[in-house]
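Need tokens for this chain, all 322 residues.
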Amino acid sequence: MKADATQFDALAERFLAVLENERNASAHTVRAYRREVGNFAAYLAATLGAEATVATVDHLHIRSYLGSLYERGLTKASAARALAAVRSWFKWLAKEHTIEQNPATLVSTPKLPHHLPRVPSVEEVNGLLDSMGAADRAATKDEAAAWPERDRMIFELLYGCGIRNSELVGIDLGDIQWKNDAILVRGKGRKQRYVPLGDEAARAMRAYLPLREGRLRAAGKLALVADGPLVMNLRMRGACRLTTRSVGRIVKRIALDRGLASDVHPHTLRHAFGTHMLEEGADLRAIQEMLGHERLSTTQRYTHLTAGQVQRVYDETHPRAH
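Here are the structure tokens for all 322 residues:
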């Protein structure tokens, strides 16, 4: 802690330590909260003075902070994320009896437009996956182009299992339960769940694993052969685990090469997983379990019925449709 640290700084650090050590928040969540809570703590010190205490903060200060974010050009979504972090911080402060009431509860969340990403059709996704093969090897040595067996497996797992990008890169070889046709994944808050391993994803994995082993042995990283990261980086650097950023580049490049929309990214495939299963009649709660959603309302948002499907259902079922 800096010598000139304020009470706001000290309490922010304590809250972040709780997030990381007691609540098992992911590294991504801790980084995001450190940024948002740290920025608000700095704002409070500048506005109220370095000697001020957190007990003097009220809802007007929080609203004023949100106003300053808008003045800096931040979007409503960014302001909503900042407010969510502030709310969590002050909820913890109230629980610890550092403050009597949580002033953040009096501040409304900025209303966000309900934009859902366009979901590729079943035909589009199947066409993309069927077109991927060993013959697709690019001449370049770029991370996002040079290992087609790995890249096909990435697509099969993202779409076939509905997992998040972070969950994909976090899979270790020991997490694959071949006998049970399942994979252990670690979701938000490090919560663990099993997801089904489909036939196509399993085939893609079996095509990739011998190449993975060969590259590891050639790099002299024998300890990682049996239980290292599943999705490896091309050059076998460090712990060899591929990054989420690289997965994003791989997905975008291949999607663009196959004629899909430019906004396709790893989460698009997760969204397609839920939407396509719902369209085929899967139970919403089963989809919720596979996606690892805590609330059913989140699943309902991700697996929305498309306007086209609603029209088809109406045409096929309503007696006055024709």
